[in-house]
Amino acid sequence: MAKCNTMVIALATVLVLLLIDGGEGFEICNIDSSQLNLCRVAVTGPNPPPPDQKCCEVIRQANLPCLCQYKSLLPSIGIDPKNAFALPPKCGINNPPQC
Q: Is residue 98 part of a domain?
């Protein structure tokens, strides 16, 4: 269990660094992590705007069930999970996973 927690902490740290520093990306759930910033405005704040076309392209290529496992990490990087998991329907994806 400690190994799993360490991996989660390491992943959260990498994601934070990528979002803050714009570092080189890596693939996570069929998305290059550097592309996640394309959806940042649509998942932050109390009343985010709808996702734009570029964000929806990222969401459409994502392995959505895979992304569910990162739901608990989202608040640590300033993302509201409710907003994040509302993106698939807003991008026209029917029957997204229920995380």
A: no
At position 63, the amino acid (one-letter code) is N
**What is the total count of domains within the chain?**
1
CATH of the domain at 36: 1.10.110.10
Cβ neighbors of 67 (< 8 A, separation 6 or more) are 29, 99
Structural domain boundaries, residue 64:
2-90
List 27's β-bridge partners, or say none: 32
pLDDT-flagged residues of the chain (< 70): 1-25
- The percentage of residues in the chain with a pLDDT greater than 70, rounded to a whole number, is 75
What is the biggest distance separating any 2 CA atoms in the chain, rounded to whole angstroms? 40
- At residue 58, the pLDDT reads 92
Beta bridge partners, 32, equal 27
Task: Quick: pLDDT tens for 42-58.
Answer: 998 888 999 999 999 99
How many other C-beta atoms are found inside a 10 Å radius of the C-beta of residue 54? 11
